[in-house]
Amino acid sequence: MLSYTPSHHPPNSNHLPSYRPACDKQQFKARKLDSTKVPPVKSEQLLHIENHDFAMRPGFGGSPIPVGTDVQVESIDKISEDFTMTLYLRHYWKDERLSFPSTRNRSMTFDGRLIKKIWVPDTFFVHSKRSFIHDTTMENIMLCIYPDGNVLFSLWITVSAMCFTDFSRFPLDTQNCSLELESYAYNEEDLMLYWKHGNESLSLDEHISLSQFFIEEFSASSGLAFYSSTGWYNRLFINFALRRHIFFFFLQSYFPSMLMVMLSWVSFWIDRRAVPARLSLGITTVLTMSTIITGVSASMPQVSYIKAVDVYLWISFLFVFLSVIEYAAVNYLTTTAEDYSCNNMRSPVAGLYNIDAMQAMAFDGCHHDTDIDLATLSVLLEEGPARERAPSITHLDEGPLKRKRFLKGTVGRIILQNNHIIDTYSRIVFPAIYIVFNFFCWGLYI
User: What backbone torsions phi and psi does residue 159 show, to the nearest 5 degrees?
Assistant: First the structure.
């Protein structure tokens, strides 16, 4: 018969009872109660995206879906034959297929990754040359969905579009431009595009400042556009009127041209015999006006019609050119009168004196076809035959005084009658006509 005697050695761990199944059950219960360990529900499952065909608009086959719109303009620049505008574009509509249960009635916000899975309005910008959605650091798109199915769709866009400008009054012009929005695929039977809050749907950043324009008007309007193949479409308009700053162009174009015209009048007070002075002054003013006209034309769009600045600059150029023509007429009449006077003073004794034409002109300013000593000739004509046998030195010493008296009495009177009258009238007529032109021009365009 066998008997069992307990061992006095310490018990081995293999002989301990096992409690591991009980611990595993407690840990599983704890993990089950921890909501952070529960896999989240996907947005597609919550919004039932897989259960609907979002290639079709909401309420397909029924009345057109209303899509409200509002716009916040952040900047406007590069205004010429086109303009660039940066704006926040927001659309509002209701899609019951996206409704979801919520005890707190809180909306869900998504970024641009959900856009391709649901229906959104296909708005585009009419007459747009280039547009893009900002994508720093991701595409700037926001989608907000409410439990009842209302949707807010917002994106940040930069658009370059055409502006039907009229530069006929430049730089005293006012440009009226508009940015137009329209659905590309859905006509008015499927989609009704409208301003959500009327004219208040369009807002303008208060810090917008344009370098060349004042913003006179900024308004929203709507209308319809007809296409022969597809029908009528709702169209929204962002209208703005811009009046150009005149001060910059006055300093760069108008004021310098005025100075050049007035500078050309200085030649009317310069001696008619100072040919280099009057001619160089006239050519300088003509070339300066040409430079001003070229600079203005280079900075302007190339249009086929005449602008207000063209009228002013070209008429100013005409005044400068006429001042050069005026001196040409004065110089011609002066030379003609001198030639006539000098020809009348010639006599058979002129050939007795050896003075060439250049020396004679240096003495009296007359042009001579033959070598004549007018000083000696004038003395001979006044002193008579008794002085003809006197030494020639005596005639040369007394000649200048006699010649001066003679010119004052005869030749000077002829020259002043042809020259001084033209310059005198020019000093009055040129400024008077230019002042009248300025009053007419500024009054017409302002």
Answer: -125, 135
Whether the CB-CB separation of 93 and 66 falls below 8 Å is answered with: yes
**CB distance 309 to 367 below 8 Å:** no
Residue 4: Cβ within 10 Å count? 5
Q: Cα separations (Å) of 430 from 84, 222, 250, 334, 436?
A: 46, 54, 22, 21, 10
Q: 3-class DSSP state for residue 145?
A: strand
Helix, strand or coil for residue 332? helix
Size of the chain, expressed as the number of residues it contains: 446
List per-residue pLDDT tens for the chain, 446 residues long.
444 444 444 444 444 444 444 445 555 444 444 433 434 556 666 677 877 888 899 989 899 999 999 999 999 988 888 999 999 999 999 999 998 888 787 889 998 888 888 999 999 999 999 999 999 888 999 999 999 999 999 999 999 999 999 999 999 999 999 999 999 999 999 999 999 998 899 999 888 888 889 999 999 999 999 999 999 999 999 999 999 999 989 999 999 999 999 999 999 998 888 889 999 999 999 999 999 999 988 888 788 899 999 999 999 999 999 999 999 998 888 888 777 777 665 544 444 444 455 545 444 445 444 444 444 444 444 444 444 444 444 444 455 555 555 555 554 555 455 456 889 999 999 999 999 999 999 988 87
Quote the strand ranges of 78-189, DSSP E.
Answer: 82-94, 108-110, 123-126, 128-133, 141-145, 150-162, 174-183
Residue 82, SS3 per DSSP:
strand
Within 10 angstroms of residue 88's Cβ, the number of other Cβ atoms is 17
Helix ranges restricted to H, 265-364: 275-298, 308-344, 357-364
- Residue 69: name the closest of 284, 221, 269, 254 by CA: 221
* Spatial CB neighbours of 124, under 8 Å, sequence gap ≥ 6: 181, 182, 183, 184
* CB distance 142 to 90 below 8 Å: no
Give CA separation, 371 vs 143, 340, 348, 354, 366, in Å.
103, 16, 12, 7, 12
Contact 29, 51 (CB under 8 A): no
